[in-house]
Amino acid sequence: MDDDADRLFFFCPDITDASTVKRVQQFIEHGLRVVVFGFRRERYNNGYEPPWRHVLLGMTADARYWQRLRALIGALPVIFAQRRWLGRASLFYARNLDQLVLTMLARMMSGSRAPVAYEVLDIQPALMGRNPLAALLRFVERLCLRHVRLLVLSSPGFHRSYYSMMQKYRGEWFLLENKLHAPIPAAAGVRENPRSHDGKRPWVIGYFGLIRGEATFDLMTRLAARLGDKVLFKFRGVLTTVDEERFRRALLQHPNMVYDGPYRPHDDLQDLYGDVDFAWALDLENADHNSRWLLPCRFYEAGHFGVPCLGVHGFEIGALLEEHRIGWTFGRPLEEQLVRFFQALTPADYLKVRGRLCGLPQSTFVAGEDLTRLSAILSRLATGTADAAERRPLRPGAVATGPARPSRR
């Protein structure tokens, strides 16, 4: 392999994950030369074989932290064997804390002085506890952050409430939201031809992707029981922190809850969103921290197809929906507010909100200038030519979404 090909070494927890695939493809399309070091997980898309250069570090699993620790230790011999190749890197890019630690070890083993970028899509619950383990993990992250040149975050809430407030991070950071990789041509047809509603059929609510959170699923189950034929919940994706036996039992008990199995990211989105009225974005799994701060992928997927989201008042996603009146939010008690909402909702009221959502530019939901800007910054970091303007924090609103995204006032 020639030296010119080995520029950005990308460490990730799952080489088959849709968001990883999207990010690597985006970087390659923007001229970065990427080699991926990562694990595999047994979930939706696990048959995917990456077309780009990659080194498999082992198998791991969602939420099984001790198993993941063993997998990380097991990856060290693989990394050591690749140390000469890693020494030729001009930039490291790590996703999530465990991969950041591996990146730092790979950097040490190889003797590399290449800069490090650190991307965070979620603040893991293990970091947020008051126990010694959580304190240790935060300490480890703070140590690693001292060597990070650029922190890449998918939500401004992560910086405001965690990295700035708790970790006292004062370095460079960039807001890169979980937008779609590329426009889906069929989305225009779905936006222009909304599902008709005569006031009699059920309102269809889609929950697609990682199906997680017992509190979230319990709320949906109670709504299905109380609202009956007023609503139909459609699930597609893979169960993570929802017990499969309880999930299957609820589906048997409630005919207005249906699960149609996993799906192919990007390829199946037209079928998913073309068949629903709402996207469920009420994430209650970690309501005191991560769920409160994140901007979920389904907001961008649904928005691209003109499907409004349901969110929680006071959460980051709720603030976005309320500010631009492009969805509905609910406060406590959630169950009562949601029941009253669906009992009173009219097709005319629904179409007003959907119309405002469809009026937004598609760059609100599809990556464009934000990804171009990040790729340019990474390229300059890799070549050691980052200028002074890129050595200060890159604040939300100034960089990541460009002028097409509605401003936050």
Give the helix/strand layout:
Blueprint: E1 8-12, H1 18-29, E2 34-41, E3 54-60, H2 65-81, H3 83-86, E4 91-95, H4 97-110, E5 116-120, H5 132-145, E6 148-153, H6 156-163, E7 173-175, H7 187-192, E8 203-211, H8 214-227, E9 231-239, H9 244-253, E10 257-259, H10 269-273, E11 278-280, H11 290-293, H12 297-304, E12 309-312, H13 316-324, E13 327-330, H14 334-344, H15 347-358, H16 369-383
Description of the structure:
By secondary structure, this protein is of the alpha/beta class. It folds into two domains: 3-179 and 367-390, Rossmann fold, CATH 3.40.50; 187-363, Rossmann fold, CATH 3.40.50. The protein is built from 16 helices and 13 strands. The protein has helices at 18-29, 65-81, 83-86, 97-110, 132-145, 156-163, 187-192, 214-227, 244-253, 269-273, 290-293, 297-304, 316-324, 334-344, 347-358, 369-383, and strands at 8-12, 34-41, 54-60, 91-95, 116-120, 148-153, 173-175, 203-211, 231-239, 257-259, 278-280, 309-312, 327-330. Helix 2 runs parallel beside helix 4 (97-110) and helix 8 (214-227) runs parallel beside helix 14 (334-344).
Helical/strand content category: alpha/beta
Question: For the record, what CATH class of the largest domain applies?
Answer: Alpha Beta
Can you identify the CATH superfamily of the largest domain?
A: Glycogen Phosphorylase B
**Biggest sheet, in brief?**
7 strands, parallel
For the structure shown, list the relevant keywords:
single chain; 409 residues; alpha/beta; Rossmann fold; seven-stranded parallel beta sheet; six-stranded parallel beta sheet; 16 helices; disordered N terminus
